[in-house]
């Protein structure tokens, strides 16, 4: 008993079993044992004035806290009100035993198909740990607060029910969930059935047919395309019946769209056996044929697919997201796509759209984007009302690793405990248990709208890919694998023994599937053809359009003034902070033409005009409501109210009666997951301007995988158009290495084949026209905007309402009319971004009327004709200088120099003025920054002591 008190997790600071008893007592006092009921009754009684006890309404929290305190003291047990104290004590131990199995029974579950896992020593699961003797096993105890179907039973029956429920083919983890209702839901669903399904013969045959399809495809490919990589599902075939059950049951409960994300393992099997891709099309990819409409294409196990399948509840649209080799990076992309579909349907509760994410065990535990994506689950801007996660857990990780080296947790799924998502670990060799776990997972998601995980513990028959020899590094494991007959064979034999199928019927299933493969037919019945949902988006108008820099983005002046008035007319009872009140008053003056427009007003009018025209706008980032540099103030906070819903007002949501939706979100502190989420959102909605804004442009480094694998190459690899906008604050202003550069050189290095746009606008009018152009042109390309910091309030970086009412985005900005005499110009300085304004000041200070300043506002696609036209205005210019803030090995210099060189006339040479090459994006000392900035400006003007470097 002393060992029990010192070692049991039920003592110390943890008393969950008592809290559960108390919850049951509050709902129904008769549901708990007599000793506990008497104890809880005593807590509800206090002395009255006359000395007699009376009942009072006691707060729940203090009593629960008292449980924890008594547990630490080792005194957590009821006072016995009559009866035998020893019997009452053992009744308490029964309740503790129940709690132990609910908490850690999964550790004893029969999960490993290879039978290699040793059962750990967990004393709390042994009756002897609680001083029960062999003679006690026949004694009758109360099973109150359980759902086994009996109120009282011998101890042996209670223990057997616990082991059947929590230590069979399903090991459930859910007791860490804070909400009592959710914990009770799991207890009832598991204990009432002993975690075992009772399927009809027809259901069992369906499971066998899906297992046969899973195994059949892999074996067919293995013999037909020997040695080719396919990342086989062999050893994890139960995943296909799980997906079949998930889709059919989802349709039955009203789900109409399922968005799926998964990496390589089993992907080809899902394409053919779940989504209904024609086998002959897959075979063509194995034979090396390619699509002529994709410049580069991708390997077969990265490709996505979509289809419509029939379910008992009607058609369900399935979308498998395209995914690169970066495994879990697809997770937030899927969540973003699901969110866009929910918004389009007005599906606030996830009744119609379901995200499903399929993971590998090592990647789920090892990749940080998993945690970042989980952290989005319950947030307002990114939550999708519950995701079903399925782990194909092959127990070996990715290549040759030992599980002890792939994680520091007991289970690969332990990361989900951060959001209290329940986990069902299930033996992949028990396909009925796998299907049952999938049913439970979906039912839980539908009931509570939260994430849930099914961890299919299986194995990998072949290596990481089909060219590996895993026995080299895992000899004992692969001796077991070689002896394993296969899940399909085991299940077919089991059904034959039960009399569900004839002895040879399993072989007939195999022959029928092989015949379908030979004929290249559908293996999913029925796949619906020519079905189109009213919520489907037609992307055809945006595809295969010829590139153009031009768009009619001008807005009539009266409309600009009307919208300016709307976004500055606020509720009378809205109390603004004095600084924000000034911003709003200034904007009101700008709308009336009394002040020039600043950057924030240029953005606001762009958003307002788009929303008024019916487009949606979705803007997210770590400070997007206010703006990192407090220039935006799209969300106005009432100074008399703290609560967000009651104390915030968003003027851009009230610009027109039937306007497009305007959403602005202050995101979680993540770059990778949030950017990928917004990419996924934009991939599903071409009619919404989707913007991700970095807090500082430098922070986009944390999302480089998203940029490389999706944004820059998604169209050329997969044919996926996407209009995502990235706003990256960029500019050298002495703030150090992590607050200066958005690394434009990295984006420019990725630019080719008109895959995206990289722009650095320098006036409010330019950002106005640029944002509008992104939606008005009838094609969708990602847009990278290097946005300013100090220019947000620069008195010279302003525009007029006429600039918005006329013209369009200009890829190159030249000198204003009559600013200088073109014939006097001997030197032309070309730049991009904020350094232009330093050059403007430098020219003024030097009184140099022989220098012209040009700005390249669109770095890619490079505006050759526009630049040539500007340079031709200065026939006497012999010197052309490129000036930039960034070090020479960074910024746009290496990318632009040959483009600018093409625009030069005979006799002209291009020179560079800027910082010297550097290993760091910027210096951290302000005085050194200032000296460098002063020198590069001097070099641009050719001052005697600071000469610009000429190119070769």
TrEMBL record:
InterPro entries per record: 2-oxogl_dehyd_N (IPR032106), 2oxoglutarate_DH_E1 (IPR011603), DH_E1 (IPR001017), KGD_C_sf (IPR042179), ODO-1/KGD_C (IPR031717), THDP-binding (IPR029061), Transketolase-like_Pyr-bd (IPR005475)
Lipid biosynthesis among keywords: no
Annotated catalysed reactions: N(6)-[(R)-lipoyl]-L-lysyl-[protein] + 2-oxoglutarate + H(+) = N(6)-[(R)-S(8)-succinyldihydrolipoyl]-L-lysyl-[protein] + CO2
CDD domains per UniProt: TPP_E1_OGDC_like
Enzyme Commission number: 1.2.4.2
UniProt keyword list: Glycolysis, Oxidoreductase, Thiamine pyrophosphate
Keyword Methyltransferase among record annotations: no
Subunit (UniProt): Homodimer. Part of the 2-oxoglutarate dehydrogenase (OGDH) complex composed of E1 (2-oxoglutarate dehydrogenase), E2 (dihydrolipoamide succinyltransferase) and E3 (dihydrolipoamide dehydrogenase); the complex contains multiple copies of the three enzymatic components (E1, E2 and E3).
Function: E1 component of the 2-oxoglutarate dehydrogenase (OGDH) complex which catalyzes the decarboxylation of 2-oxoglutarate, the first step in the conversion of 2-oxoglutarate to succinyl-CoA and CO(2).
Annotated protein name in UniProt: 2-oxoglutarate dehydrogenase E1 component
